[in-house]
């Protein structure tokens, strides 16, 4: 029986496994003085931190309401890693040549190494990413609140006081996890080899969990793709949602936003550029990462169709964002349901850890450090003192970011679909695309411009 303590214990054990993997990875790298073997595969899988709870839960929700409109979210990254490979390679080469550690560093370096510009970029990035982190809090808290009612399927009621909101607990726990993973030491290169190994592992977990749910729903609850399509086609309100009527302008816009987000999101920049060791890793990622994106989306439409067929006509009021979890619950598959929850938790936790590490690094390097060196740093202070101060600044920044994301979640309300929250952040970070791509290819681009 799935009780609150069972769910919580399983979650903590899983996070403990991730931390053990990260610790082993760091120790291995330090012991042998080199990067971990199979790094190209780890690098490619860590890029799948792009697939957050938006992918795990939100894609099905978006497909349930808008048909195929979830596809452009993944077309952009696929296009950049295939047709736009030369652009990505150029960004990585510049990052290595100039020892870039954050996206703010990259933009500032292209325009005269302006510290003011780096600070402005950091401020905008933090504001732009808060909705995306809030999305993860919403997804984990909603899925937990749904799961605790097992085997009944009851959507969480709104109007909960902020201090009793599950999302607050999730935010505080994720702050602890992020501090544990990302602030154990200061590395001048900002490489976190153990953390990347853990993120690669969580990418496998969320993919396997989603595929397991998809296979069960498609081939055990129904009799395959054909059976699902036939049953859905017989219901007009469902068939209309999946009529082949592509809104070209919407697809082009979302494709461009996702193409820019795959490099402009601070967590994606950190994984793709900062953590890259050599171009061989990029070559592996050019085929493995797009393959991952295709695999994790194979069962989106079948799960959406199944959810609409099983819940839409029953007056159950089940949120489409939860179909991947509530369908196994409906079939009373206890083990699968818990595994799916862990997959969703994994997707959210991986994003939050990497994003908060990247944002905290930007705050400490591009905002705090210049001010600290100018106004407070004295000759008597040792490098150890500075390192300890920077670690503490990053820990405070991580906690503040998670609490601000929780505040956004509370102010924005819990009625928004996951996909709509994610697109707000995509649009926010897309503001950096002209500076990044213009700075690479246009020699006359200026800081003032």
Q: What's this model, at a glance?
A:
The protein has helices at 4-32, 39-46, 53-66, 72-82, 85-97, 103-110, 115-147, 166-182, 193-221, 225-233, 236-241, 248-264, 266-274, 279-295, 300-312, 323-330, 334-375, 383-412, 418-429, 433-441. It is mostly helical and 449 residues long.
Uncertain residue segments: none
Strand content bin: under 5%
Oligomerization state of this entry? single chain
The biggest beta sheet is recorded as:
none
Percent of residues in helices: over 70%
Structural class: mainly alpha
- Average the pLDDT over all residues and give the rounded result: 87
Distance between the termini: 61 Å
* Principal-axes shape call: globular
Helix-strand sequence: HHHHHHHHHHHHHHHHHHHH
How many helices in DSSP terms? 20
Please count the beta strands (DSSP E, at least 2 residues each).
0
Integer-rounded radius of gyration: 22 Å
Report on this structure.
With 449 residues, the protein is mostly helical. It has helices at 4-32, 39-46, 53-66, 72-82, 85-97, 103-110, 115-147, 166-182, 193-221, 225-233, 236-241, 248-264, 266-274, 279-295, 300-312, 323-330, 334-375, 383-412, 418-429, 433-441. The longest helix is centred in the C-terminal third of the chain and has 42 residues, at 334-375. The mean pLDDT is 87.
